[in-house]
């Protein structure tokens, strides 16, 4: 029983990143790794590390956090917490990818990327996601004078 409690304590990854600074740092690490994963997917999707960027980040970050925590005697460290945040970004990207794949399968839609200078399919307009929101319904809008006034900050 005592050895089980010792193991549980060593696996406890309480972050030393406390308070507002910790939240900001944790969020910054997660956002930076997520950006890197997205960039690897889009720029290097034809290579191994591009296809598996999320898995590499998840495994590397989580295993790194466990190793650093184990080497520190089970104590939380800044390095371990940073690696854990990076690994969590990878796990989140894997889950997001699975959700997108499942949603596309259920809707019968397919995600397609085309070159910037390629012609769009017939009936498509220049938008980030074909089939996203359609044209807005007519309604009350701002005049150019009102837009310029807002832009000027008056």
Question: Could you characterize what this model shows?
Answer:
This protein has 154 residues and is mainly alpha-helical. It has a domain of 93 residues. The chain is 64% helix and 0% strand. It is extended.
Helix content: 55-70%
- SSE topology string: HHHHHH
Structure summary, number of beta strands: 0
Distance between the termini: 69 Å
Q: In what range is the share of β-strand residues?
A: under 5%
Overall spatial form: extended
Radius of gyration: 23 Å
| Biggest sheet layout | none
Which spans have pLDDT < 50 for at least 5 consecutive residues?
none
* Number of helices in the DSSP assignment: 6
In round numbers, the mean pLDDT is: 80
The SS-based structural class is mainly alpha
